[in-house]
Write a structure and sequence with these properties.
Elements: H1 14-30, H2 40-57, H3 81-94, H4 96-115, H5 118-130, E1 135-138, E2 154-158, E3 161-172, E4 179-185, E5 202-208, E6 214-220, E7 228-239, E8 243-244, H6 250-286, E9 288-289, E10 292-293, H7 298-326, H8 332-357, H9 367-376, H10 385-407
Parallel strand pairs: 1-4
Antiparallel strand pairs: 2-3, 3-7, 4-5, 5-8, 6-7, 9-10
Helix pairs in contact: 1-3, 2-4, 3-4, 3-6, 4-5, 4-6, 6-7, 6-8, 6-9, 7-8, 8-9, 8-10
Length: 408
């Protein structure tokens, strides 16, 4: 943290400040950035163990958006975005895998929290909170990543069931999740005048991991170790009661879910960057070169200054966006700016910190080497940096057109 404690900023309520204090105490006792699991079986064991530990500590209650931790503002949403971002920042600073587990419990169950029927919420959300069940968000496909509307996975109504056919890929928690929120097309794809596929006709379903017809087609090994897989659905029959919301409303539900959790990705980036910055600050005061410490060189001081400035700016943008979301205000542009800035800044900060560590920084398993791998995915998932730029540009032009109309 900077000399001025960010929790003292006016973006936060007394409840958030108390949460930050409790978080730091718990994370300091239960998490460690230096003992992360690498091989698949160890990663799965760690994921399940972390989910249970977070449940016992009460952190995962913030994931399910049931109003238990509603924002203090009267117009606030069911999710406390500032709390989610604070939790992810703290977890990421101590252990990137802990952040991953927490994030997936939220993102994977988010569609249920937002649009699930009462029976679905009662069946799944308590297990998410306790850590008894791991959740997954199955949206991306081989030909539909950033262009979600292009998804091809289908769901055909057959009496009281739907029959799902297709594939999902790059699914975090794939292969270890107990259930998946799957998005599939229930209507024929329609083309817009510009030739792009319309987002209409997409629906969402909760599919249990042991559902007949659902299989793990391929497991991946990402740079930052966590479960990642490709799913295949063939004649996968799901009760109609497992549908989330109305038929054809799946795209909107996916966007609502991502809109809640996208700001928290920026929080995680802050945590990884802060970990790297703290390590660099300690290292340069101890590492001796040419009869002096690294900290004595002006080049080092300039590098630290740039890191500190980027970190502070990213944190301000992140919690501004979270504060606006908690107030119930439209903040599409601010959220995109926060996600883009925090993740890109964190990549640069970690790179500079690794450079200060020299050869030690690139040794497999060293803290900076792990952070270098951990940060890379955050610039891609839940909307790659390039997508955030498109969103920001679109919002700027929309606002500009509105101002021109007002002047007329």
């Amino acid at each position: 943290m900077s000399a001025r404690n960010p929790l003292e900023w006016p973006f936060f309520t007394p409840a958030h400040r108390a949460l930050g204090t409790r978080l730091e105490a718990w994370a300091g006792e239960h998490l460690s950035q230096t003992t992360g699991a690498e091989d698949a079986p160890a990663v799965e064991r760690a994921c399940r163990s972390l989910a249970v530990a977070m449940g016992e500590a009460g952190w995962t209650t913030y994931c399910v958006g049931n109003g238990a931790h509603r924002s203090a503002e009267p117009s606030g949403t069911a999710f406390d975005i500032r709390a989610l971002a604070l939790i992810r920042e703290t977890f990421a600073r101590h252990d990137a895998l802990a952040d991953f587990v927490f994030a997936m419990q939220g993102l994977g169950s988010g569609p249920i929290s937002l649009a699930g029927s009462a029976p679905l919420k009662e069946r799944y959300l308590p297990k998410v909170v306790s850590g008894a069940a791991l959740a997954a968000f199955a949206l991306s496909e081989p030909n539909a990543g950033s262009d979600v509307a292009a998804l091809e996975c289908s769901a055909r109504r057959d009496g009281d069931t739907y029959v799902l056919e297709g594939q999902k890929t790059w699914i975090s928690n794939g292969g270890i999740a107990d259930f998946y929120c799957v998005f599939a097309r229930t209507g024929e794809p329609q083309r817009r005048p510009d030739g792009a596929v319309s987002a209409e006709g997409i629906s969402a379903f909760v599919v249990d991991a042991d559902a007949p017809g659902l299989e793990i087609a391929e497991r991946f090994t990402p740079m930052s170790p966590h479960p990642l897989a490709r799913l295949r659905l063939h004649a996968c029959r799901v009760p109609a009661t497992q549908r989330l919301g109305d038929e054809g409303e799946g795209f909107k539900l996916a966007m609502r879910t991502l809109d809640v959790f996208r700001t928290t990705v920026a929080g995680a980036a802050l945590g990884l960057a802060q970990c790297a910055f703290d390590a660099a600050l300690s290292h340069v005061g101890e590492r001796r070169m040419f009869g002096r410490t690294l900290a004595d060189f002006q080049l080092t001081q300039a590098s630290l200054a740039e890191m500190a400035a980027e970190l502070d700016a990213a944190r301000l943008l992140t919690y501004r966006a979270a504060w606006l979301r908690d107030r119930g205000e439209a903040a599409t542009q601010e959220v995109a700016i926060a996600k883009m800035t925090a993740t890109e800044s964190a990549q640069r900060i970690i790179d500079r910190a690794l450079q200060l560590f020299g050869g030690r920084g690139v040794v497999r398993g060293e803290r900076l080497e792990r952070l270098y791998r951990d940060i890379r995915a955050l610039r891609i998932y839940e909307g790659a940096t390039e997508v955030q730029k498109l969103i920001i540009g679109r919002e700027l032009l929309r606002s500009s057109r509105g101002r021109r109309v007002e002047h007329v």
